[in-house]
Specification:
The complex is a heterodimer of chains A (192) and B (117).
Chain A (H helix, E strand, L loop, with lengths): L1 H9 L7 H9 L3 E3 L4 E3 L5 E2 L15 E2 L5 E2 L1 E2 L2 E2 L3 H4 L6 H6 L3 H11 L1 H5 L5 E5 L7 E7 L3 E9 L5 E5 L7 H8 L12 E2 L1
Antiparallel strand pairs in A: 1-2, 3-4, 4-5, 6-7, 8-9, 9-10, 10-11
Chain B lengths: L1 E2 L3 E4 L2 E6 L7 E2 L6 E5 L7 E4 L8 E5 L6 E6 L3 E5 L9 E3 L2 E7 L1 E4 L2 E4 L3
Parallel strand pairs in B: 1-10
Antiparallel strand pairs in B: 2-3, 3-11, 4-7, 5-6, 6-9, 7-8, 8-11, 9-10, 12-13
The chains are: A alpha+beta (192), B mainly beta (117).
Chain lengths: 192, 117
């Protein structure tokens, strides 16, 4: 509506839309019928990730003043319990969740490094430097083989990133994860 | 503060010192006096704070096609800081020069995407 509001303000070309513009300023979704109109309040909160997908990792992604909430992880709607009560989400719950897209979100919320240890990973290659880490492969239920880079980050936390499925060494996987060939990849002198 | 000669990483971003910025790269505007090198979904961005001189301390250029690839032109020594209170990635000092910025990606069953930090 802001697009048409510009023309209504600057060029006086869309005056017939002024009523719709006023409603858009103060209301959320609304439905007109012959003898009645249903209006909804605007959300008190909307949170998105940097790709503009509904996302919030510590609360609802959409909240209304009457308490109605929607929880979302990178655009995937998820049970609010996973965010409100993190202990309710265990690796077992995540890996056996029936809806596949929600299962993926659950694994990301927990962190893949907490999931892969439950799946008896096969170590394909390992560097002595824990910051470079190891290339592992696991058998994901209903998906099949998936390779991961499993390493420590500069803060000492454990991280697992889905690796290039063609990588055979941890250096190949690390290089590819930055869009580089092994020849163009230099091991960082410092990693924080 | 940590320094480096050729290659460094902060979180899931890799920095490599190179000779020059390729033609066609698009310069990015700073946000409130800061250059956001990597946006974070939680607002814990990796930033370089600019000084007030006519030529800014750092300029960033993005690849026109690849959102995971950028370059930094560091005109005066500047630190890269991570704005998070806990599990903070330690700051890194950049000396003058040109640096390639590669943001980490992962190959999901649906294809490549930016790695989730």
């Amino acid at each position: 509506m802001s697009f048409y509001d510009y023309f209504a303000t600057e060029i006086s070309g869309c005056k017939k839309l002024s009523g719709l513009n006023k409603i858009a300023k103060f209301c959320g979704w609304w439905w007109p019928f012959e003898n009645a109109v249903i209006f909804t309040d605007r959300p008190t909160k909307i949170k998105c990730d940097d790709e503009k997908l509904l996302h919030c990792e510590d609360g609802p992604a959409i909240a209304y003043s009457d308490g109605f909430e929607i929880y979302s992880w990178h655009g995937q709607r998820i049970p609010g319990e996973w965010i409100k009560n993190p202990k309710s989400l265990t690796p077992k719950v995540a890996l056996t969740w029936e809806q596949i897209d929600q299962r993926t979100a659950a694994c990301e919320i927990l962190g893949w490094h907490n999931i892969i240890n439950e799946l008896s990973p096969t170590v394909l290659d390992e560097d002595q430097d824990p910051l470079i880490g190891r290339l592992i492969e696991v058998d994901l239920p209903d998906h099949g083989k998936q390779k991961f880079i499993h390493a420590k980050c500069g803060t000492g936390r454990e991280v697992a990133v889905m690796a290039d499925r063609d990588a055979t060494t941890i250096l190949e996987a690390q290089a590819s994860s930055y869009g580089l060939s092994v020849e163009d990849f230099s091991i960082p002198e410092i990693r924080t | 503060m940590k320094t480096f000669n050729k290659t460094a990483a902060q979180g899931d971003v890799l920095f490599t010192k190179i000779e020059s910025i390729p033609d066609g790269a698009i310069e990015q505007k700073p946000e409130n006096g800061e250059l956001v090198v990597t946006h974070s979904e939680t607002g814990h961005n990796h930033v370089m704070v600019l000084d007030r001189q006519e030529t800014p301390a750092v300029q960033m250029f993005d690849d026109k096609d690849n959102p995971l690839l950028s370059w930094l032109l560091v005109n005066r020594p500047t630190s890269l800081d991570h704005k998070r209170a806990n599990h903070t990635h330690e700051s890194i000092m950049f000396e003058e020069g040109v640096y390639r910025v590669n943001r980490q990606r992962e190959q999901t069953p649906e294809g490549w995407r930016r790695a989730i930090d």
